[in-house]
Design brief:
single chain, alpha+beta, 4-stranded antiparallel β-sheet, 637 residues, 8 strands
Length: 637
């Protein structure tokens, strides 16, 4: 510099340069320090995971998958993407940030498209990052859905019953119904490459629902979701619908109303078929409640009374299937019987045929289905144990194990699935209240007709199938002759599986299957129809003994009912001059005494075998162990 001004300018420039350099250096140091801390946290987490994996003896492939996930999540910064980190900022600034985050992600979903902008921003705020590794299942068919997903990068394949139906790419979404109604998934979704997603959970969505300003918005979304479900019912054979009821008192009112409507509906059908009259022919208090389309009813597909339609989905079973597994096994069939006006089996069976869309998918005539179900229920006499309430209990447990326990995800044969429902419904058809040994000792007509091997079970099947083939009951007329014969064979085999004399053989055959799948089954596991049927035999058996895993107070009612039925058989044996069976003496209560032994030798091993292939059913096994300990303690005292 030659002049004082130039000197001053140079000094200022140098100061500024030094300041900028210092700032830049400080920022770089800060960044490197943050990276170093982040790397240290990552390494610490990986070490913790390694120790935990070793302690829990995880298999090497699973450990490798966990470490790969953590590494990818760290590299992509997924652990820093949640919008919950913005909670410390003022709401207006958060809204401005969210507004830049492609609100079209939410707008593209038909359920949310017409919601106002503030709601869509709120939806974006509850989005959380998810990483699904290549080859992993994001969603499994049959599981109860609790999240929806938006694809950010990667590719997903959508699989229904083992068949690829579509693909999902960035900008697309899956599972939107699940955040409105927690329901079983209608398809499986597999990541075909490492895929980044945003997820919204039903729990977070429900918290938004409780916000007063969004009350009307949620009502519209709920109605839109019902419309989507109804549309899928018409074009798909895999509908799943679930309407929650969180208030127990309201639920009981709805359940009673549904049962009353169903009772009136039976009266209406009877009146219609016998008198060819309309609902106006019913008593005044029923005529208003039951208004069905006669033409539609006569064609086979029933247009149910408005009250019935609105309340039927509120059944106690529906609530149980959407909550924890302990609530599922806590289903009280005795209470359900009381609330259903004495028609528990018919109501539950018809409900399940509707819920799982068997009526539409298999062209079932619902009028004849109701006739048949009503006849099955009427065949159940007032014997203490093997009655309609018992079959209702078995059917509810079977459905829970099938769909909530994950069994349905590996059953690809829909005729077999239909057959299994039918087998459970009829497995104690017109039970006489005595066992096979009594029938053999008295050389009864049943033994002469059906033989000494599985006499009762052959009788249950043959009698029920004959009733099914009656014109007024034949709801399977939409099946081809070959399909009908397939169903007949399946039902026969599954009913015979309930004979305890066949227990050991079925268990041994099942244990051979366990050896083929030591780490459990996947929905993509290839199973023959016979293998699928073997699995269903075990599930039917577990359901038939399901009260062993009910809460002890409910289980005890079933033990007392069975003890009374045995004692009534003992009374007959005594009157005929026969030796009274070991468990049939009224004054000895031996059935109660052998409970721990029955649990240890039969129930618990059976439930454990099922849980080995289907881990989600392990709570039945755990509850059974609890009950066994109660019995053991009781008799020690």
């Amino acid at each position: 510099p030659e002049t004082p001004l130039e000197t001053t300018f140079m000094i200022i420039a140098q100061i500024l340069a030094i300041t900028a350099y210092t700032t830049l250096l400080g920022n770089l140091v800060s960044v490197f320090e943050e990276l170093r801390m982040s790397e240290a946290q990552f390494q610490s987490r990986m070490l913790d995971l390694s120790i935990w994996s070793e302690q829990n003896k995880l298999p090497e492939p699973l450990k490798a998958k966990i470490f790969r996930y953590e590494k990818l999540a760290f590299q992509r910064g997924l652990n820093k993407l949640s919008l919950s980190t913005l909670d410390s900022l003022p709401s207006h600034l958060v809204n401005e940030i969210v507004a830049q985050m492609e609100p079209s992600v939410i707008k593209q979903v038909p359920l949310f498209a017409k919601a106002d902008a503030s709601f869509q921003r709120a939806m974006l705020r509850i989005c959380k990052p998810v990483l699904c590794l290549k080859g992993d299942y994001l969603i499994r068919q049959g599981e109860i859905g609790q999240e929806m997903y938006f694809v950010k990068s990667g590719r997903l394949d959508v699989i229904v019953n083992g068949r690829k139906v579509t693909e999902k790419y960035p900008g697309e979404y899956v599972g939107e119904i699940s955040v409105v109604f927690a329901q079983p998934r209608t398809a499986s979704v597999i990541a075909m490459e490492d895929t980044e997603l945003l997820s919204i959970s039903k729990k977070d969505f429900d918290e938004l629902k409780d916000t007063e300003e969004y009350g009307d918005t949620f009502s519209r979304i709920r109605e839109a979701a019902r419309g989507v479900i109804n549309e899928r019912l018409q074009r798909s054979d895999l509908p799943r619908i679930c309407i929650d009821s969180d208030d127990e008192d309201d639920e009981l009112v709805e359940l009673q109303s549904a049962a009353t409507a169903m009772l009136c509906f039976f009266d209406y059908l009877t009146s219609s078929s016998e008198n060819d009259s309309s609902a106006d022919a019913l008593p005044a208090e029923k005529g208003k409640e039951v208004e069905a389309d006669l033409t539609d009813a006569k064609s086979g597909h029933l247009s149910l009374p408005p009250t019935f339609n609105d309340t039927f989905l509120q059944l106690e079973l529906q609530k149980s299937m959407t909550k924890s597994y302990k609530e599922i096994v806590g289903f009280d069939s005795f209470r359900f019987d009381s609330l259903s006006c004495g028609k528990p089996l018919t109501i539950l069976s018809f409900y399940l045929f509707r819920k799982w869309n068997m009526s539409r998918a298999l062209q079932i005539n619902e009028t004849k289905l109701l006739n048949f179900l009503s006849q099955v229920e009427k065949s159940m006499t007032s014997i203490p144990y093997h009655n309609a309430v018992h079959v209702t209990d078995v059917l509810q447990m079977y459905t829970s194990l099938l769909f909530r326990g994950g069994v349905a995800s590996v059953i690809g044969d829909r005729l077999l699935l239909l057959s299994s429902f039918l087998a459970v419904i009829i497995h104690d058809f017109a039970h006489p209240g005595v066992n096979n040994l009594f029938l053999a000792r008295t050389n009864s007509e049943m033994v002469q007709k059906y033989g000494e091997c599985s006499t009762l079970e052959e009788y249950h099947f043959a009698s029920a199938w004959a009733a099914l083939l009656e014109e007024k009951n034949f709801f399977l007329g939409g099946l081809s002759p070959d399909d009908l014969e397939t169903v007949r064979i399946h039902v026969h085999d599954l009913v015979l599986a309930t004979d305890m004399a066949r227990h050991e053989g079925i268990v041994k055959e099942y244990e051979k299957l366990l050896e083929q799948f030591p780490v459990g089954l996947e929905p993509t596991s290839i199973l023959t129809v016979d293998e699928q049927k073997l699995i269903l035999k075990v599930v039917v058996k577990c359901s038939d003994l399901g009260h062993l895993g009910r809460p002890y107070s409910i289980h005890l009612q079933w033990v007392d009912a069975l003890a009374e039925e045995f004692c009534q058989q003992g009374d007959m044996e005594r009157s005929l001059g026969l030796e009274v069976g070991l468990l049939n003496h009224r004054d000895q209560k031996k059935l109660q005494i052998i409970q721990p032994e029955f649990y240890s030798n039969i129930g618990i091993p059976l439930f454990a075998d099922m849980a080995r292939l289907f881990p989600k059913t392990k709570d039945l096994y755990n509850e059974a162990r609890v009950n066994c300990r109660i019995w053991e303690t009781r008799f020690q005292k």
